[in-house]
Amino acid sequence: MINAEIPSEKPSSEECISDTQIPPLPASEMQASGLLAQPKSSWQDLPVPESPDKHDAYFQKGIPAPNNLKLIGARVRGKSHKHAGTNCDDWFEFDIAQDWTIMAVADGVGSRKLSRVGAKEACCAAVKILKEDLRQVTLSERTSRKQFRGRGKDGRFSDMDMDQVEQTLIRAMDAAYHALEEARDARKDKQEYIDLLGQNPEVSDFSTTLLLAVHNCFVLEDKTYDFIMSLQVGDGMIAAVNIDNKLMMLGKPDNGEFAGQTIPINNIKIRDDKEKRRRVFTTVQRLKAVMLMTDGVADDYFPGDPGMLKLYEDLVKQEIITPAANNDQAAGQEIEQPISAQEKLRRWLDSYYVKGSFDDRTLVVLFREDNI
């Protein structure tokens, strides 16, 4: 989220580049896309000065995921933060627990001076709980996809395995909130934070959104299906694309899809388990990809439907991800890949241009490169 003075986008003859700037993909690697390489402008790229809780300007990561999937993520500072020389407020984490893939994305509320700390601590705490608890959860065999949908009168899933997954997501969201409390307590009475805030830190100083999703697979009638359950608080987007190029939205951004304000995880109503349960989405599909992102990416593809399909298409066009059909065509051929998928993702996030897009950008993608 942004909270900074916005300079003119009028092009200038020079562009100030600091040693933290990520080089964009070469023109030869920028495929045709509705999103363009960033033009020269009056925007600066100032480094973040040394300060408490300084974050790296960018980060990327990629790991193999269970069931022959790949998992990549990247975050970059938005133009407003570069211009002001301030920290990136986004964070993401992901991990593996047995056959489960765990993903978390957060966006610190820009008006709060320690929100970047909240985003990081929330992601780390939530992923830790999910990893610990999901080790003990195995999806039961079913004869129909419809058997994943049943809820009782109390609003909880009727099947034990589904209820376990949902309860784990709820506990993870609670752990994220408690992580904000711990972050506050760890900085209490420290002069550097009193000087920064004018008082001791409060939980609200760490306000952040949080998007969580977990993935597993199961076999039904000799076909492999993907199971996704998600829980979203705040803006951003969680979406999935199936093998028929159908879009599934797996979360509802708070205060509308394109709003300047949002609900953080420390909002009082999020303390209610029923409220968190209302925010849980589930889908059982044969998927190409699952994508979690902060509003810095989601707003560039507004509206989400069909924007998320366009996002997936752009990831394929930029050769950040390679779907199964493309891999089949390349079977038996030696392919040179000097740049990792996560590095390509980071460079692309930092390079594409949309007028009026100033915010930090974070995107996590779980995708399949083999046929299922």
In percent, how helical is the residue content?
25-40%
Percentage of β-strand residues:
15-25%
Distance between the termini: 38 Å
CATH topology: Phosphatase 2c, domain 1
Output the radius of gyration: 21 Å
Structural class: alpha+beta
CATH level 1 class label: Alpha Beta
User: Could you state the order of secondary-structure elements as H and E?
Assistant: EEEHEEHHHEEEEHEEHHHHEE
CATH homologous superfamily placement:
PPM-type phosphatase domain
- Overall mean pLDDT stands at 86
Helix-strand layout with pairing:
Blueprint: E1 36-37, E2 58-65, E3 69-76, H1 79-84, E4 90-97, E5 100-107, H2 115-134, H3 160-186, H4 191-197, E6 210-220, E7 223-233, E8 237-242, E9 247-249, H5 273-278, E10 280-285, E11 287-293, H6 295-298, H7 304-317, H8 324-329, H9 341-351, E12 352-353, E13 361-368
Antiparallel strand pairs: 1-12, 2-3, 3-13, 4-5, 5-6, 6-7, 7-10, 8-9, 8-11, 11-13
Helix pairs in contact: 2-3
Q: What key attributes describe this structure?
A:
Phosphatase 2c, domain 1, single chain, alpha+beta, five-stranded antiparallel β-sheet, 372 residues, 9 helices, disordered N terminus, globular, six-stranded antiparallel β-sheet
Describe the structure.
This protein is an alpha+beta fold. It has one domain (34-328, 336-368): PPM-type phosphatase domain (Phosphatase 2c, domain 1), CATH 3.60.40. Helix content is 27%, strand content 24%. It is built from nine helices and 13 strands. α2 (115-134) packs antiparallel against α3. The radius of gyration is 21 Å and the shape is globular. The model is unreliable at 3-34 and 328-335 (pLDDT under 50).
